[in-house]
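Deviation from plan, reported transparently: iron/sulfur cluster complex.
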Amino acid sequence: MSEKKRPEPKRLFIETYGCQMNVYDSERMRDVLSPLGYAPVDKPDDADLVVLNTCHIREKATEKVYSEIGRLRAHKERRAGEGKTTTIAIAGCVAQAEGEEIIARAPEVDLVVGPQAYHKLPELIARAARKTGERLAADFTAQEKFDALPARAPDGVSAFLSIQEGCDKFCTFCVVPYTRGAEYSRPVADILAEARALADAGVREITLLGQNVNAYHGEGSSGFADLLSAIAEINGIARIRYTTSHPVEMTEELIALHGAEPKLMPYLHLPVQSGSDRVLKAMNRKHDGAFYRGIIARLRAARPDIALSTDFIVGFPGERDQDFEETMALVRDVRFASAYSFKYSPRPGTPAAAMMGQVKEEAKAERLAALQALLSEQQRAFNESQIGRTLDILVAGRGRRPGQAHGRSPYLQAVHFMDERARDGEIVRVKIIGATQNSLTGERVVAETEAA
Ligand code: SAH
Ligand code: SF4
Ligand code: F3S
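Because the crystal trials were delayed, the predicted structure below was used instead.
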């Protein structure tokens, strides 16, 4: 009998930028590289393979990649001086958008792999070692990628699960349709198999991911609400979330499910971008402010305690003071539990970058500050409104103080409470006694029978 030779152990460091989709992809890259002997480390120092999983969404994110490559060059040279080889890989959305330029500009980069091609990493690494062949893999092969991925090794009680990739919506400011390609939905059977495997490995909470997750239309289902119901039937999975949704894909069926399915958490991220109909139109968001408000009203009717989160862009080309005021009015009316807001960043190749009426930097900064002040106030008010309530907390580790446990509320708030016994993955009742901008504190409610 021949014994399979174990590969030499090697150190892998992955730096992840951008959205949850990249967090999921980084995890899957670790799974792909593990059979080659790569073990993850949390610092780049002395890593044999460094992967930058990049984001192209705003200019700043992209610039970061080039400065990071400069730092890695020094890392590679230092290790070469010690007789060690270092492989540098650029993955993610900048790899997809600017792969050719990176290859041309940065000889220290050994390989470039787009978000739909990371199942090809072993082959690319082998080529890099031989110093032969193509250094770039950036084809759109979502299905091939998912089919080629090995079993998952999740750590923790919460996990991401990508069910859909790419986007056909073409908002005029956004690079995602170019970096992630056309919309692709995985078949239901594959998703359920992955979800069951996660449950078997102790995962209690699954967040379904997609650039337009609620546009899901994979083989074997009648749509996204149907898929959610199937996942809710899996034993062990106690909480289901999904992100990011597009308002035009919020079907009546999905809204109704928020009222009917207790495993679906009462917290939804639903990007609106602007409160001005003019700006929404120029953004090609395919709906107006009234449509968004209508969805929120129906969601709240179906699930009165639902909390909302959103994204905003300020300073989109042509945005006047009055348009911005309409954004502020929408925020006041809807009231968000949390939100992300950004200054518009012109992206190469997108229609908005070539539009007339680009807004001056000072106006963008001013509007962003005003919007963020209002949003923080709402976030604090939302957290404070939890004081006195008893919430179900999914325990996910120990707090910093001795005896302190840490977990997440249904609204994704971080919650700390004193409890020696709480085990990871357990869902405990906690009465909220304190709130700050970013977290809650509470006391575990002990059931009568247990207290006796
Ligand atoms: N698919 C999601 C989000 C994709 S990107 C959606 O449809 O909403 C995440 C957020 O980044 C967007 O919601 C938007 O607010 C922001 N964003 C995207 N492109 C941007 C740009 N060019 N400048 C500033 N912010 C941008
Ligand atoms: Fe970008 Fe719009 Fe697609 Fe979201 S829906 S990924 S913002 S193009
Ligand atoms: Fe960034 Fe790509 Fe996500 S551009 S936001 S990493 S889809």
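The pocket of iron/sulfur cluster (ligand 2) is lined by residues 167, 169-171, 174, 176-177, 211-212, 246 (CB under 6 Å). We consider this an acceptable substitute for the interim report.
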